[in-house]
Amino acid sequence: LTELDEWNYDGSSTYQATTENSEIKLKPIRVVRDPFRRGKGLLALCETYNGNGTAALANFRKICNQVMTEAAADKPWFGIEQEYAIFVTKGTNYKYPLGWPEGGFPSEQGPYYCSVGASNAYGRELVELHQRACFYAGLKYAGLNAEVLPSQWEFQIGPCEGIEMGDHLWLARYLLHRAGEVFGLDVSFDPKPFKGWNGSGAHTNFSTLAMRNENGLEAIVQGIESLQTAHKDHIQVYGIGNERRLVGACETSSIEKFSYGIGNRAASIRIPFDCAAKKCGYMEDRRPASNCDPYLVTGIIVDSVCLGGKHRQDILQSWNEFQKRTTTHH
Questions:
Q1: How many degrees, rounded to 5, is the angle at CA 85 between CA 119 and CA 61?
Q2: How many of the other CB atoms lie within 10 Å of CB of 182?
Q3: Contact (CB, 8 A) for 242 and 287
Q4: Quick one: pLDDT at residue 330?
Q5: b/e map of 215-227 (b: 16 or more CB within 10 Å)?
Q6: Mapping DSSP to helix (H, G, I), strand (E, B) and coil, where does residue 198 land?
Q7: What is the DSSP-derived secondary structure letter of residue 319?
Q8: Closest Cα to residue 24, out of 61, 52, 64?
Q9: Contact 153, 86 (CB under 8 A)
Q10: Positions in the chain short of pLDDT 70
Q11: pLDDT of residue 135
Q12: Which residues contact 235 (CB under 8 A, 6 or more apart)?
C-alpha cells in the first residue's frame, strides 16, 4: 500500500467538484489482488479528497473510520447480506430481469429462493464467477444464495471488524459489476425493482464484544433500544428509495415504525432464535436497502450503540450534502 502514489481525477464529471476546481485526490487505503487481470495486477480502493485536504463529496469512509477508531475497544463485528437482481440489457434504456419473459412476468414467487435448476435459478454462472473473484481477491466472502424474486441473488460478506466491513463490501460490489460485464448482464441494487414482489436489502448483522460474551443478550437489547431512539435518523442514510421496500410486507417492517423480535423477519431488528437461547450473539438490522452505503450504515450503527450518537449529526450532514448535490444534477 505504501508503494502506491496518490493520484487525481476530474471531479466535475462525477458531480463532486466544479470545472474551475475539478481535481479530486485519490488516496489508496486498501489493496487486493485483481481477479480479472491476475498476475501482478492489483485493485486499489481509494478515499477521495478535495484539493484543500477535506473529504470529497461522497467520501463517507472518513467519518465512518473516525467512529470505528473511537469505538475500537467495543470490537464491533459486522456481516452484511447483499441482495441484488440481474438484468438483461438492450441498448442504454431498456432492460428486464434475467429469465423473465420479455415484457411479461414469470410464475409467482415461491420456487426461486435457494433454488436449483434452470427453470428456477437464473444467472448462476455470473454469481459463481463473482464468488471465485472475491476469493481470489482475498475478500471475506462468506456465502451466497438465490433469493425470493426470480433473478435475484444474495452474497454475504463478513465477519468483518470496524471499517473493514465497508471496504470489503464496496470491493465485492465492484467485482460483481465486472463479472456482469463478462456475460453482458447488468446488476441492479434497486431496493424494489417491482411492486408486489420482494425487494432487495442489505441486512446488517452486528455485535459488540459485550453482546458476544456470556449473558450478552442484555447488551443486545440495550443496543436495540439505542437504535430505536435514532430510528428516523438511521432511515435517512439506509438507502435511496427504501420507502418503496419497507412497507410492512414481503418480509419487511414498516419504515414508519420501529420494532424488534426474536426470529421475526417482519421486524426492524431480528434477534436470531439461537442467540436468544444462548443469551448472547448478535442482532440483525433488516432496514438497510441494497443500495445503501455500508460506511454510512455501519458508522451510524456503531455511533448510536457505542458512542451515544456523538457523530450522528456529522454523518447526517455528509449524507444530506451528497443528496443535495446529486439531486441538483439529476
A1: 150
A2: 13
A3: yes
A4: 52
A5: ebbebbeebbebb
A6: coil
A7: H
A8: 52
A9: yes
A10: 328-330
A11: 98
A12: 242, 246, 255, 287
Residue 239, all three cell numbers:
438507502
Quote the crossing angle between the two packed helices 217-229 and 294-306, to the nearest 10°.
Answer: 110
Can you name the residues that pair with 26 across neighbouring β-strands? 7, 48
Three-state DSSP at 46 gives: strand
- pTM comes to 0.96
Other beta carbons within 10 angstroms of residue 26's beta carbon come to 18
The CA dihedral of 258, 285, 47, 170, to the nearest 10 degrees, is: -130
The torsion region of residue 128 among left (phi > 0), alpha (psi -120 to 50) and beta comes to alpha
Distance of CA 33 to the CA centre of its chain: 21
Condensed to tens digits (0 to 9), the pLDDT of residues 125-152 reads 999 999 999 999 999 999 999 999 999 9
- What is the distance between the alpha carbons of residues 93 and 186, in angstroms, rounded to a whole number? 12
Rounded-to-integer distance, Cα 218 and Cα 238, Å: 26
What grid cell was written down for 3? 508503494
Helices (H), the chain: 61-70, 124-137, 164-183, 209-212, 217-229, 231-236, 273-278, 294-306, 312-329
Residue 184 identity (one-letter amino acid): G
d(CA 155, CA 129): 12
Residue carrying the nine cell digits 420456487: 111
Tens-digit pLDDT profile for residues 74-125: 999 999 999 999 999 987 778 899 999 988 899 988 999 999 999 999 999 9
